[in-house]
Structures are given as C-alpha cells and as structure tokens.
Amino acid sequence: MRKQTKKAIKQTTYLAIGLVVGFVVLSLIVDNNQWSNPTITEEVLEYKPLVEKYAEDYQIAGYVDILLAMMMQESGGRGADPMQSSESYCGQIGCIDNPEHSIKQGVYYFSETLKDAGYDLELAIQSYNFGRGFINYVQETSGHYTQEVAIAFSQEMYENAPDQSIYTCLRKEAKQFDACYGDIYYVKSVMSYVDHIREQQ
Fold first, then answer.
1. Are 51 and 68 in contact (CB under 8 A)?
2. Alpha-carbon dihedral of residues 31, 32, 37, 42, nearest 10 degrees?
3. Average pLDDT, stretch 134-143?
4. Which of 111, 198, 23, 155 is nearest to 103 (CA)?
5. Could you give phi then psi for residue 103, rounded to 5 degrees?
6. Is the pLDDT of residue 125 over 60?
7. Is the pLDDT of residue 123 over 70?
8. Most exposed among 33, 135, 165, 190, judged by the fewest C-beta atoms under 10 Å?
9. What is the maximal distance between C-alpha atoms in the chain?
10. C-alpha to C-alpha distances, 36 to 29, 33, 39, 77, 166, nearest whole angstrom
11. 182 φ/ψ sector (left φ>0, alpha ψ -120 to 50, else beta)
C-alpha cells in the first residue's frame, strides 16, 4: 500500500513538473510569437495604394514597407485611425475618424520624423511611437538609437509623468524595467513585420 502511495505521489510530482515546464515553454512561444511568426492582415494590405500615394507625395516612396509594418503594429489596419496618428495631428487620441486622413497624417508625420532623425531609420520608427522629443533625447545622450536608450527614455518619461495611471505597460518586460511610456520594443516589432512583407513580395 505504501509503495502504491509513493508511486502515486511520484507520478503526481512528475506530472506537475511537466505541466509547469509546458506552461513556461508555451508562455515563451506566445511572448515571442509576434516576432517569430508575424502576419500582415488583409486590412493593412488593402491600404497599400493609399500609403504609396502619400509616401510619394511626401517623398518617402522607399519607405512603404516600413509604413505598412507600422500600421500593422499600430492597429492591424482596423478602425477609423489605422495609423493611430490623431495625437500627432491634434495632440489627443480620437480626433481623426477617417482612414485616409489617418494615413495622410501618419505618412506626413513619419516623413518629418525621418528628417529630424537624420534618416536614422530605427530612431525615426521609435520616435513615431514615443514622439519626436525622443530624437532630441537621443541626440543629447547616445547620439544614435539603441534598445538601451529607448528603455532609458521610457523610464524617465514614466517616472516624471504627472499621472502614471494614463500609461499601461504594454509588455511584461516594460513593467519589469518601469518603462511604461510607449512601447520600448516598437522597433523590433515593426521590423519583424517589414521582413514578413518583403518575404511576400
């Protein structure tokens, strides 16, 4: 009887360990899924002609893939403001309620960000998310974009925010760093979508 009890306890322990290990592995897969298996929605691809039009207008025709990837990261192409460009237009969320207006403003804002960033692509992409104040911060500190400077900027902005409750840590890593302003891994996410877009072409 004791042998059976010990055997049952041992089996239960192994099962519990197996479940925990399985859960950890699954969590890692889910966390890294957007980077290892990015997909571009049909909604985003439908906007490609408009993105191309305004990229041509603002003389950044070579950045269409980047702009589509940014739209994917921002909204997946859904909603009335697929480029999430209201804040750059009027200083608050929700003032743009027309997809073409959103795309026009988003492309324009990115074109200006590129110029300010001296065509440092990663700096320009992260500044689309953080705001163009990030460019000044980088120029005064590291001189160029790095993941570390993005984290430091987010930490500083979050720490000095008058009301931290308006920010939501988008990723658990950001919470660990107390870097809850913006998305500290925005560049990595956008570039993973760019690679996927280019593979499809």
1. yes
2. 50
3. 94
4. 111
5. -70, -45
6. yes
7. yes
8. 165
9. 82
10. 9, 5, 10, 20, 30
11. left
Rounded Cα gap, residues 83 and 105, in angstroms: 8
Tell me what pLDDT residue 201 has: 67
Amino acid at position 67, single letter: L
Quick one: tokens of 166? 């308006």
Name, in order, each residue with C-beta under 8 angstroms of 36's C-beta and a sequence gap of 6 or more.
Answer: 192
pLDDT in tens, 80-100: 999 999 999 999 999 999 999
CB count in 10 Å sphere of residue 175 = 12
Q: d(Cα 144, Cα 127) in Å, to the nearest integer?
A: 12
Can you give the pTM of this predicted structure? 0.78
User: Which of the 8 DSSP states describes residue 120?
Assistant: -
Q: What is the mean pLDDT of the chain?
A: 83
